Amino acid sequence: KSNSFCTLLIMDPQQQRVTSRVLPQPPETTVGGEAPGTTNAAIEQLIGSDPAACRYVKRRHLGSGSFGSAWKVEESTTGLPYAAKLMNTNQMSAKDRGFVANEVRCLKACDHPNIVKHVLSTDVDGMILIVMEYADGGDLYKQIKARQPGMKYFKEHEILFIFLQLCLALDHIHCQRMMHRDLKTANVLLTATGLVKLGDFGFSRMYEDSLSNPVGSTFCGTPYYLSPELWRRAPYSKKSEMWALGCVLYEVMALRRPYSGRHMDDLIDNIIHARYEPLPEHYSPELRNVVAQLMQIDPAKRPSLRQLFQQPFIRNNGLTTLKRSVENHSRIPEQTRNELVQSINNVLACESADYDGPRVVPKTGTLKRHAAESGWKDCVLTLSENAIEMRDVDDGATETVELKALTSVCPIDATIAIEQFVFAMKNQTGKAFWFKEKDQASFEEWLTVLQNAMPY
């Protein structure tokens, strides 16, 4: 039987004891229809209605989209609940198929207790099944909506616990050299044990940060969380993600989004001038100041996650209290509890706020560079502490890109490059440089050192 409420773990700083608070959970979605053409024989052996005939049994329809359905399922042999997406990629555009592929790659790359875990994914004749961890407490957006009648505000320590778990999830993603790119309360999932799970990686980027592309071509999420620089057609960056994090924190505190408008122009104008209503004064000045820092108009003035973790209020009032609460919470499985405590310890152990900066490992090698006029030519590529130099072996011509101007490094699919082991980098002007290595190992080595050297 499914839960009818979500228990959010809290530790009351005044009482210094573990308590719980019952949060109303939205009514369950009734079983609905499935998008046409979303099953075939091979897929039906994995997901279906008969426990004797499939691995995952459909228990509740969670929603439908243009290309398929989402279900709460149970593994037939264990009875464990999972969430499953079933999609028909034959009906998708190449761009939409890319979003699905991104989601699978990024879920597989992440292993953190505050991120929805990838369980299984398979593609059978254009039918894609993605099985993920199931969060039984609904999403944060619905929890906020449930509190709006009567304005039943979260307590400050509840907010900190939600916010810090989200920060830990984002920190893990950023350390994998990824960005989520669709951070919003609807993508923050809750569990009955009080754990927060970040989900929906459809718009994420693993190799290609897309930092040099304008918002119109790189961001497909809701406009309410887009930062001022994105509306000015600046590149997407981790500082854009910090703005969205500030919007989420504001929304949890105020039970409403920080930015709105009668029409889109009003919304954009309010965002680019950071005009939002003051936060409720019953929250501490320190917590309200976190929102103010994250929603600085100038992205350079916003803190990074690691800078945020160094602030005394976040470390002492937040992370240490969260750690103590998790350690004392027996309903969280031991392995998950240990993983989360270790994640918090890793953050607390770091004394420098800048240790998540670029890691430059100098490297020189000869490989092929593509030129529009002459095709592939030998090139000496040199990565130094501050720049990348490209020298043509034949004529000695040299071109330099400063690392601070580097916006993207990514592999190029062989179907596009018509060659294997091709990667590209872009600078702030949008100019692309294509290179080809001789084998997989050399290709991956260059990708790694160049991506690690990218500015955040």
Automatic annotation (TrEMBL):
SMART domains named among the record's database cross-references: S_TKc
GO molecular function, one term: protein serine/threonine kinase activity
Keyword annotations of the record: ATP-binding, Kinase, Nucleotide-binding, Serine/threonine-protein kinase, Transferase
Family: Belongs to the protein kinase superfamily.
Annotated CDD domains: STKc_Nek
Segments forming a coiled coil: none
Residue ranges of every copy of the PH domain listed in the record: 360-455
Catalytic activity as recorded in UniProt: L-seryl-[protein] + ATP = O-phospho-L-seryl-[protein] + ADP + H(+); L-threonyl-[protein] + ATP = O-phospho-L-threonyl-[protein] + ADP + H(+)
Positions of ATP binding: K85
Entries under Pfam families matching the protein: Pkinase
Keyword Iron: no
Enzyme Commission number(s) from the entry: 2.7.11.1
Keyword S-adenosyl-L-methionine part of the UniProt annotation: no
Protein name: non-specific serine/threonine protein kinase
InterPro entries hit by this protein: Kinase-like_dom_sf (IPR011009), NEK_Ser/Thr_kinase_NIMA (IPR051131), PH_domain (IPR001849), Prot_kinase_dom (IPR000719), Protein_kinase_ATP_BS (IPR017441), Ser/Thr_kinase_AS (IPR008271)
